[in-house]
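May I ask you to review the protein record following this short note?
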Amino acid sequence: MEVKVPEAPAPKEGESSDRPLWESALDEWKLSQAQLDEIQTLLVTIPVHKLPSCQKEDLEKAYYQYMAQKAAEIKRRNEQKRIRSRFSYLRKLMQEDIASKPPQEEKQPTQAVARGTQEFRNFTERQNNNYMDKVLKQYSQPYSEEERKALQEMEQQQKGNQK
């Protein structure tokens, strides 16, 4: 589904630029300064992957587009079913966006399989990797000189303990 992103309005002549651009997306809502401050606090914590076409140098425009999208979504949902508090609903939507995780890039889905089962699959699905040859070779190698002396000493100790 394609979402049309609204363009940021050009500042009007004589209009104060003290006000952030994103607030103009909510002009018709008549929000209090406390509510605008709360939205501002939430807005700066919105993850970048949730902001439309976000580039660091154009963050203000991305905030405006994000707020315009949310306002349009709330307006559309209000037509379907009445929303009592647009501010509370907006805050809830923003909090959900903040809590959302970024999309994962090409990772294999995790399998809900016990570790032992997965290890067994890994073992049985091997093909032509000479696993048995490697294991047999490991155990058929003669002992090193140090290992041989240690074994002889252990055998002598065991014989001495038996007497």
The chain is about 50% helix and 0% strand.
